[in-house]
Amino acid sequence: MLGGLFMSESWLGLEGKTVIVTGGASGIGKAVAQEFLNVGCNVVVSDMAPEAPEFDTAAGRFHYVKTDVTSAEDVDAMVKEVVDTFGTVDVLVNNAGINIPRLLVDPKEPKGQYELDEAVWDKVCGVNLKGVFFCAQAVGRILVEKGEGVIINMSSESGLEGSEGQSVYAATKNAVNSLTRSWAKELGKQGVRVVGVAPGIMEATGLRTLAYESALAYTRGITVDDLRAGYSKTSTTPLGRSGKLSEVADMCVYLASQRSSYVHGVTINVAGGKTRG
């Protein structure tokens, strides 16, 4: 964790900054939100969860806003609430995303439940692309007016390598990488940095539902037990292990800090060497 002896709050220059983490109620997003709290930031979590998640934090530095990121109206209202609560926004972590495994063509059951259809396409693209766009634009307007700030877009190794049974998810993450590069060219001259983070294989968090695992296993022609066994294999990355959520969170905090002031327009792999970029 960065909030230790070496990575002090003053060294990072983040104390008192206000950070929005979309999709921050669980998984990587929650780990990212907690680490920003650890280094002294005000943190707003935006998510669809009915109740606010719990964090270790000082009173008054955390706020929760239930938000549908596919709704521009919802996003604008969320950002307004952030400004009303903390006065401004300094960092956006565009983390909200979904993955619904499907095959382009299912040879066993054409047009069956695990074959890609328009509804799944629209749902995944809606959250992973439209949501990223709405949030970046709403926060970007504030950052441009201030002449400073950071937007961090959460990608995935799938966006660089492709992924069997997850073509739509992989396509959206590749598109997010392109948005990061393009927005960096647009916003850099306004003093706003835009960067991306692409996690690789992460440790099991208990967030993988049986429905998700069943779909992914089916698309890969294996059993759910085989899929779960694969999570624990250490030979799939050069480092010989899965990543920790805290390692993705640490990268986000670094990229938001003054210590990465010349890092711009790139997506950083946090994948144990598995993804070359």
Briefly say what this structure is.
This protein has 277 residues and is α/β, with parallel strands linked by helices. The chain contains nine helices and seven strands; from the N terminus they run H-E-H-E-E-H-E-H-E-H-H-E-H-H-H-E. The protein has a seven-stranded parallel β-sheet with strand order 3-2-1-4-5-6-7, sandwiched between helices.
Q: What is the CATH architecture assignment?
A: 3-Layer(aba) Sandwich
Please give the count of helices. 9
Radius of gyration: 18 Å
How many strand segments? Answer: 7
Distance between the termini: 25 Å
- The order of strands across the largest sheet is 3-2-1-4-5-6-7
CATH class: Alpha Beta
Largest sheet: 7 strands, parallel
CATH superfamily: NAD(P)-binding Rossmann-like Domain
Globally, the shape reads globular
Structural class: alpha/beta
Residue-averaged pLDDT: 89
H/E series: HEHEEHEHEHHEHHHE
Strand content: 5-15%
Please give the share of residues in helix: 40-55%
Q: What is the third-level CATH name, the topology?
A: Rossmann fold
Please tell me the total number of domains. Answer: 1
Taking pLDDT < 50 over at least 5 consecutive residues as the criterion, the unreliable ranges are: 2-6
Keywords: Oxidoreductase
Organism: Anaerostipes caccae (strain DSM 14662 / CCUG 47493 / JCM 13470 / NCIMB 13811 / L1-92)
Pfam family, one: adh_short
Protein name: Oxidoreductase, short chain dehydrogenase/reductase family protein
